[in-house]
Structure formats: structure tokens, C-alpha cells
Amino acid sequence: MNRNLRTYIFNRNIYKFFETSKRSAGHSKWQNIKHIKAETDQARSILFMQLRRKIRDAVFEGGGSIKPTINLKLARVIEQCKKSNMPMSTINNILDKIDCSKEKTQTTLLQIQGPKNCIMVLKIVTDNITETKMHLNSVLKKINAKILQAAINGFFDHNGIIITEAKSTLETAMENAINVGAVDIEEIEEDENKYYKFKCDPQLLIKITNQLKNLDYSVIDTKEELLPLICIKLSDEDLQVVQSAQQRLLRIDEIEEIYDNVDRNNNL
């Protein structure tokens, strides 16, 4: 073969090698960008899903009001949404949908036996409980869990919680707590500010909240609290299984919150 021809073929192969390397490097960089963008989009999607649930929760706990000027908890959640760069148009669409469906919407607590024998309570807010349960059952089978018929108060201490600004004296607040039907009150302190924590029957949460407002208490927050009566300890591996199951459950839009009886401070 002619030497000049051999040199040409050799140089051409080197050129093709570098061209291929460049394309591969570019492809790898593009894949990395896609991967990072996918992770960012997923994190943003999860964040917005959590915020959407907080908005809906704030509306129902605020007596169904979608007006932040009246519903202070909703106002705080909306402010949190804005700080998380959720567009105002998205917030308004969420509120419009809630307003259209709130007459049919109901809140349900379902107790399930999860993986590794942990007990979980699912807080569900839906306007079609039958359809939600069908979807839930298909997920429960995949995570080795099932709905329990046992009473929730057999595993959890279930209470309604109302946090207010501290007003007058604790003794007066105790009298007011008795008069409105609360079962307990305590003074708590956070960031050098004092608050009252009223505890009541969760079914009376809205009623007692309104009564406290009529007594000029400034309500900071209202929520249901489920504290496990007995906690179970899990190995790190079993805990990961439980957390993975909870993540799958939280992908169901109607599941607002999950309570469990797992001791995360002293695992095996």
C-alpha cells in the first residue's frame, strides 16, 4: 500500500476516534444534565404535592374557608407556597378545586398493619372514598400491608390540638378550657413566646376552636394528633422498608398524612 495512503487512513481513523469520543462525552454530559433535571423536577413535584395537601388541610381545619384574610392557617400556608416558588395561578386553581368539591369531601382515618408489623394510621381527604379505598388496596398488596378493623384508640392516643397565643393567666385559660369542653390545657414556650395548647376530642376540634375564637383567643394552629401508646423498634434495614412503603402510600393524592408507632430514636 502506498505510504501516503496508509498515513491518510491512519490519520482518518484518529479523526474518527476523536469525533466518536467527543460525541460520547457530549452524550454523557447530556445524560448527566437530564438526570440532574429529573431529580430537580421530582423534588419540586414532591414539594408541590406536600404544599397542595397543606392548603387543603388548612381549608378544612379552617372551617372550609378559602379566604386567607379569614383563615389564618391558610394564609400561613400560602405564604409558604410563595416562598417555595409555587405560582399564584397554581395556588388559586387548588383553592378553586377545593371550593367546588368541599361539600362532598370527607376526612377519614384508616388504620393499617404495615410491613414489619408496624401500625400506621392514614389520614385521607377525598370526595370519593370508595374509589380511594380501591386504589389504596392495590397499593397495600404491593407493600405487604392490610387495613385493620381494630379501634384506633387501642394503639394511639387520638386528640384534637388547638394552639393559641397566651392570653391573661393560665388559671383563667383553664376555666375557659373547661367551659368550652377541652380535656386539657398546657402552657408551651417557643422562641421566647408563650402559647396555650388546648387538647380536646378530635370530633369537637372545629366547634371548640370557634368557641375559643369567640372568647378572643388568637388561634395559631389546629390539628389532630395521634401519639402511639406503644412504640416498636426496628432494625435500620426494616425501617427503610417501612419508609419506602410510606413513600408509596403518599403518592396517593388523597392521603394527607401518615402516623405510625415506630420508634425512630432507638432503633435496633
Q: How would you describe the overall organization of this protein?
A:
- By secondary structure, the protein is an alpha+beta fold.
- Helix content is about 50%, strand content about 20%.
- The strands form two sheets. Strands 3-1-2-8 form a four-stranded antiparallel β-sheet. A four-stranded antiparallel β-sheet has the order 5-6-4-7, with helices on one face.
- Helix 1 (about 5-60) packs across helix 3.
> Which sequence of SSEs, written as H and E, runs from N to C?
HHHEEHEEHEEHEHE
Query: Helical element count?
Result: 7
The tally of beta strands, per DSSP, is 8
Instruction: Report the end-to-end length measured between terminal Cα atoms.
Output: 74 Å
Measured as a percent range, the helix fraction is 40-55%
Low-confidence stretches: 5-10, 13-26
Give the neighbour order of strands across the main sheet: 3-1-2-8
Query: Rg, please?
Result: 27 Å
Structural class: alpha+beta
Largest sheet: 4 strands, antiparallel
- Percentage beta strand: 15-25%
Rounded mean pLDDT score? 83
Summed up, what is this model?
The protein is of the alpha+beta class and 268 residues long. The protein contains 7 helices and 8 strands.
Question: Which keywords apply here?
Answer:
single chain; 268 residues; alpha+beta; 4-stranded antiparallel β-sheet; 8 strands; 50% helix; globular
Can you lay out the helices and strands and say which pair or pack?
Elements: H1 3-61, H2 72-83, H3 88-101, E1 106-113, E2 119-126, H4 129-142, E3 146-147, E4 156-165, H5 170-180, E5 184-190, E6 193-200, H6 205-214, E7 219-228, H7 236-250, E8 255-260
Antiparallel strand pairs: 1-2, 1-3, 2-8, 4-6, 4-7, 5-6
